[in-house]
Structure formats: C-alpha cells, structure tokens
Design brief:
Order of helices and strands: HHEHEEEHEHEE
CATH architecture: 3-Layer(aba) Sandwich
Largest sheet: 7 strands, mixed
Strand content: 15-25%
Number of domains: 1
CATH topology: Rossmann fold
Radius of gyration: 14 Å
Distance between the termini: 38 Å
CATH class: Alpha Beta
CATH superfamily: NAD(P)-binding Rossmann-like Domain
Shape: globular
Helix content: 25-40%
Number of strands: 7
Structural class: alpha/beta
Strand order of the largest sheet: 3-4-2-1-5-6-7
C-alpha cells in the first residue's frame, strides 16, 4: 500500500537552512573526514522535512534508516527508506553501521530515546527538544531550538 504524499508546512521548510548550518557545526565537532550513516528517529512533519530537503544528504551525511512509533507509517516507504518500528533501533544501528542520529520525537520521549541510543554506540545526536538532556561528558549532542535560531 503506497502512502499519499504529505505536504510539509512552509514554516518547517523555511527553517531547513538553519538545519544545514547545525550539521556543519556537528561536522566540526566530530572532525568529519568520511561519510556518516544517520538514523532518523521521528518521521512526523520535521522528520519528513529533513528527508525531503535536498541540501541535507549530499554532504557526507546519509540517512540510511528511519523509525517512528506511529503504527500507521511503520512499513511505509518514504524517500526510498522503509520506516521501521523504533523497537528495532539496536538492529538498525548495528546493521547499517550508524554513527549519528537525528532525534525528532516528542519532547516527552527525547531523553529516553537518547538513553537508548547511548547504549547502541551512537557517536553524536542532533535533537530539537527544548529540554536539558543528561548525557555522559564524552558524548556529543547538539541541541537545536528553532524558536531561538530564526
């Protein structure tokens, strides 16, 4: 069953250049010299906008897997990737050699999702929740608050 295209609001698309700037900051933090496999967690409006933005994937960041807890989109194909159940995160990270995760989940789930990612060996996370996260000091995390970066 094929999903009908979902219109991403212009307000989200208008903020994507900020997203590219943040990815460049992340590259500096990680001293990137190679390609990085990315797991996208959360395929709602923001996640779909990230998928569809042409400036995101060409520059060494490649979304190789995506997951969302919404049962209506699990199994659907978006931008060539099958949307997985988040309960398969450890397998996705291992099978796709994922280095970085973009976390675009509801604020209530952000810390627990990041805690799981830490267990799976993710090297860095970019997230959008307006909360302070608790992570080990050696872990790289980049928080993006759209409200403050417009």
């Amino acid at each position: 069953m094929s999903a009908s295209p979902i219109k991403v609001p212009d307000v989200v698309i208008g903020r994507l250049p900020q997203f590219v700037r943040i990815l460049n900051q992340l590259k500096q933090i990680l001293a990137i010299n190679n390609n990085w496999s990315v797991l996208l967690l959360g395929v709602g409006r923001l996640g779909r906008a990230i998928f569809s933005y042409p400036g995101f994937t060409p520059d060494r960041f490649h979304i190789v897997a995506a997951a969302d807890s919404n049962p209506t989109i699990i199994g659907q194909t978006i931008e060539g990737l099958v949307i997985n159940d988040p309960n398969t995160m450890s397998t996705l990270v291992r099978d796709h050699s994922i280095d970085i995760s973009i976390v675009a989940v509801p604020i209530q789930r952000t810390q627990s999702v990041i805690d799981e990612l830490l267990e799976y060996g993710i090297k860095a996370i970019l997230h959008y929740a307006c909360i302070t996260l608790h992570v080990p000091s050696e872990f790289r995390i980049l928080t993006q608050y759209y409200r403050y970066n417009l």
